[in-house]
Design a protein that fits this description.
About 45% of the residues lie in helices and about 15% in strands. The chain has about 725 residues and is of the alpha+beta class.
């Protein structure tokens, strides 16, 4: 295994010959050849300035923002930039109908007005260390579930060894190359983070779902936060006496703008890719998983939008969950189309045919695809059921909450449970209920439940249905091929559940009774479907995942053995990566050329007063018409640049990532990809892939001219 790992490293360090736009590289393993190529493209920083554990370096300016985004430090006073959609939950939580920061925007006039973001934290990377030998040596002669269990235990021990709870230091071991390499990432978490500023939602989400994943784009997708620390300079929970954090490194901001061919570098935390997926996995994605997910999310979005468009309070209430559902509804629709268009399934089969010829006579590898085929054949009959459970039945917020009450039921009926166990379970359920009710919209949820039950009945094989559920539904509410049957039943569920009635719920909390819970219609739906899946089909999924992971690891190990000089980079695992490329236009189809920037002219062309997606604040329209661009004007175009595109390699998790020029100066924030290359999680498109970025000059213009928060600019290091 050491030999294989060294092969990976040498491939990185000495044999790099690849398109500069492909690859999410570990900053720790930027060897001389990679670095030389970056310099050739326009990088001006030294390797030590990019990543160092002994001195301050660029990595110290990049943070994990919340649980799934990236942010960057931009001032010596703890100021942080990220995307608007990354700060969306915080902005929505801070908003009320009277003080609607989502609709109107917000900028703190001084530090005392900054809004504590409860539950939000950021993590700074301290260092990365290779622990491959320690993990792999402990896994010798193990396979399948035994290997998985042992790996989990070893990784937990390493995490504990590198962590220090007193200093808020946390370690996470990340398996790379499908478990052929292991790195431990050591972070320090800061929990006092405050909202400093945000543009109105109409700016931050301009274009809405229509423009999502599309180019040309005209979206001001940014928000501003500040990280605080104790007076002693350590991470601390919120206290009014805390002071702004002093980062080891912060990014200067360039006002020079971008030109075609300019170097572009992105640091961040790409969430996950699976570019070494097998042909079987591609086939299951295009045939079952993706189209089913898209259809079910389409249904949920339809019912949510019907309520949101008619009531500002409901729009505010559902804005965050709606945005999350919509984002990947469109993504998986586009991914499927691109995978089919470019026959990624066929491409994978060709690669696998080459491997099979090489593997002949090699016992460790020659039967991989026979075993893989059997694993997929065993799971495929139940794959649809799993998607309908996750995206359909559990897509109802009520059913999702009711499902958590299974823990309470177990505490009440389990003879080994103590009175204290039941009390703790009741208290936990009561707290979850309060959070659920704050976010629940009954009208949309009731429609979602009825429709999900109908679609499950129509599309999941009858022999996999919960025993007796649908016959009972038919006997009490009507024919199962009629939509009215499911509407009636959903109405009864919502009308009679104790979850919505404070008096009945409080009485239940006071005197917990398993019979009352089990007779509740909402709990009954959740319990019936969850237990049906968990007892009958979850074991098949567990077996499939274990086999799929094991075979994937061995296959990738074989690929590296087959061609030691093959250039490979690890899949994204929500760990720090750097990608580099350039600002580039593209031609999506015959006779169409997309420029690499969009401008204020395009905003005015798209603007539709009062429209749900293309409205804008009136003062922005007036400023843009006057061409009041100040120092943020692009002199080449005599206009304000809004967005630009690069050919960098990113994925989900890179939202909010800094886009930097060769000097390490901030030129934009990455916030999206383009529809023509949405296969990027499974297959990178070297011709069409583009990263959509909000130009930093538009960010500053919005803060200064639109938001009137010029005081914030005094903290920044502006490079003209």
């Amino acid at each position: 295994m050491k030999k294989i790992f060294l092969t990976i490293v040498f491939a990185f360090l000495f044999l790099f010959k690849s398109f500069a736009d492909e690859g999410m590289w570990l900053p720790l393993l930027l060897g001389q050849q990679v670095y030389n190529d970056m310099v050739k493209k326009g990088l001006k920083l030294s390797k030590e300035q990019l990543y160092s554990i002994n001195k301050a370096s660029l990595k110290d300016a990049i943070v994990i923002f919340g649980g799934g985004c990236t942010g960057e430090m931009v001032s010596p006073e703890g100021l942080l930039f990220t995307n608007h959609h990354c700060g969306y939950n915080v902005i929505a939580a801070a908003s009320t109908v009277e003080k609607n920061y989502l609709a109107d925007g917000f900028y703190a006039r001084n530090k005392s007005e900054e809004i504590p973001a409860q539950g939000l934290s950021v993590r700074f990377l301290l260092r990365i260390e290779d622990v491959t030998s320690e993990v792999v040596d402990s896994l010798k002669n193990l396979s399948g579930l035994d290997r998985t269990k042992r790996q989990t235990a070893v990784m937990a021990n390493i995490n504990n060894r590198f962590s220090d709870s007193e200093k808020n230091i946390e370690a996470v071991v990340s398996p790379l190359f499908k478990g052929n390499q292991y790195m431990v990432f050591v972070y320090q978490r800061y929990t006092d983070v405050r909202l400093v500023g945000t543009p109105p939602e109409s700016v931050g989400k301009f274009g809405g779902d229509t423009d999502n994943w599309e180019w040309p784009r005209h979206t001001g997708d940014f928000s501003v936060f500040r990280v605080y620390m104790s007076k002693e300079g350590q991470p601390a929970t919120y206290e009014a006496t805390n002071i702004p954090m002093k980062p080891k490194w912060f990014l200067p901001i360039s006002l020079k703008g971008v030109n075609e061919g300019d170097y572009a570098m992105i640091y961040g935390y790409p969430g996950g890719t699976n570019r070494y997926e097998s042909s079987y996995g591609i086939k299951m994605s295009t045939d079952i998983n993706n189209p089913t997910l898209v259809n079910l999310r389409d249904m949920r979005l339809k019912y949510m939008f019907e309520e949101m468009k008619n009531d500002p309070a409901v729009k505010l209430q559902l804005s965050s969950p709606y945005a999350g559902i919509a984002n990947y509804w469109k993504f998986y629709d586009g991914e499927t189309k691109q995978l089919l268009k470019y026959d990624v399934y066929g491409q994978k089969q060709k690669q696998e045919d080459v491997f099979l010829k090489w593997a002949k006579g090699k016992p460790e590898y020659e039967n991989i695809f026979n075993d893989w085929s059997k694993a997929y054949d065993a799971w495929k009959p139940y794959a649809l059921n799993r998607v309908y459970m996750n995206e359909g039945i559990m897509g109802s917020p009520l059913v999702g909450f009711a499902g958590t009450l299974l823990q309470l039921e177990n505490a009440m009926v389990n003879q080994s449970s103590s009175a204290d166990d039941v009390k703790k379970a009741i208290e936990a359920a009561d707290n979850r209920r309060k959070s659920f009710l704050e976010e629940e919209n009954k009208a949309s949820d009731q429609n979602i439940l009825g429709s999900a039950l109908m679609l499950y009945y129509q599309n999941v094989p009858e022999e996999q249905h919960p025993t007796g559920f649908y016959p009972a539904l038919r006997n009490a509410y009507g024919q199962l091929d009629e939509e009215s049957t499911y509407r009636k039943y959903a109405g009864e569920v919502f009308k009679n559940t104790i979850i919505f009635e404070d008096a009945k719920w409080n009485a239940f909390v006071k005197n917990p009774d398993a019979n009352i819970l089990q007779q509740d219609l909402a709990f009954n739906v959740a319990s019936t479907f969850i237990k049906n899946y968990n007892t009958k089909y979850a074991p098949y999924y567990s077996q499939f995942i274990t086999a799929n992971n094991e075979l994937g690891r061995i296959y990738l190990k074989g690929v590296m053995e087959m061609d030691p000089k093959k250039i490979m980079y690890p899949d994204a695992t929500f760990t720090m990566r750097v990608s580099y490329g350039s600002v580039e236009p593209y031609r999506p189809k015959d006779a169409v050329r997309y420029d690499y920037v969009t401008t204020a002219k395009g905003i005015l062309e798209k603007y539709i007063p009062g429209d749900y997606e293309f409205d804008l604040p009136q003062n922005e329209i007036e400023l843009l018409k006057k061409k009041d661009f100040g120092q943020y004007i692009d002199k080449k175009r005599n206009d304000l640049v809004i967005n630009f595109i690069t050919n960098n390699d990113i994925t989900g998790g890179n939202s909010g990532s800094p886009v930097m020029n060769g000097n390490g100066e901030l030129i934009g924030l990455a916030f999206d990809g383009n529809y023509e290359a949405l296969s990027h999680k499974l297959a990178f498109d070297k011709e069409f892939n583009r990263t959509i970025c909000v130009d930093i000059r538009y960010v500053l213009w919005c803060i200064d001219k639109l938001g009137g928060a010029s005081h914030l600019l005094k903290e920044l290091k502006l490079v003209k």
